[in-house]
Amino acid sequence: MTDTTVATAAATSPARAANARRRQLLTWLAVAVAAGAVGYGVYALLFAGRTVGTDNAYVGAETAQVTPLVAGPVAAVPAKETQWVKIGQPLVQLDDSDAKIAVAQAEAALGQAVRKVKGYAANDQALTGQVAAREADLARAQADFSRARTDLQRRQNLSDSGAVSGEELTTAKNQFAAAQAVVAQAQANLRAAQGQREANLVLIAGASLDENPEVAAARAQLDAAKLALERTVIRSPIDGVVSKKQVQVGQEVQAGTPLMAVVPVNAVYVDANFKEVQLKKVRIGQPVALTSDLYGGGVKFHGRVVGLSGGTGSAFSLIPAQNASGNWIKVVQRLPVRIALDPRELAAHPLRVGLSMKAKIDVSSPR
After folding, report:
1. pLDDT value of position 6
2. Hey, what CATH class is 51-62+264-362 in?
């Protein structure tokens, strides 16, 4: 073997080794790609399509707006921003001086109404006696009228024989007319007395003292005054955290003015905005796994789908999209999905309204 042959063989050996290593690496790469494809296929077959997820999800709550029901100056504000309050706990105290005066006036009006109605009952007894007296007067007038009529008839029968003078007959006629007038007057007096009694009886008939309309109306006014006095103390409608406090002592507030909000952090929920293409299999009652940006992936929340919104966010926006216009670009819409959370998990890891969440719904479960 010549020196040239030996040199050529020495030069080709490293090249062959490099080619062999290259082929080996390409083989392993092909095996890895194939394994990855098989693994992805297995995952897609077994797991893909079982869940749908989104990070477009936020914590919400049925926040209670605290507003006064009566107007007045603010005397005290016991509630502080971020303070935890219980249902019924005083939040704002309005000046109650006018309300107390209104209660006193209503109490006085109720007392007057009670006395007035009792007076109706006393008048009924008096008017009953007056009717009886008018009936007695009518009876006497009728008796006098009967005697006058008899005397007149007797004298008329004797006048033809000349036994009764003309003057006596005229006197009998006058007495008869007078007795007749007295009967008419007595009848009118009786009708007037009966009318007065009936008018008074209407005011008290069919109802006790407490049920009398005048007394009931006065009592309702008193109840309204007491309610207005009670409403000078503005109380928390729910358990929660005081937020958006915008009231100070001395401020004059009107009914309906927003003073603060109470957020029920122990009853928050999540609104997850899923793309419309993800909602085909989403059903009410399906389980949901959630994580929050506040606690990170180490804290898992569990919930359930409780409802889907009646429309997309764009449909309820201030200026809805006019898709019927000529210049139109299709945009995938998102629909809010309401998710209820486990109260025990919320107690252990409280959330606040507006925090970001990640939600993943198990759509393999029918509900």
Report:
1. 47
2. mainly beta
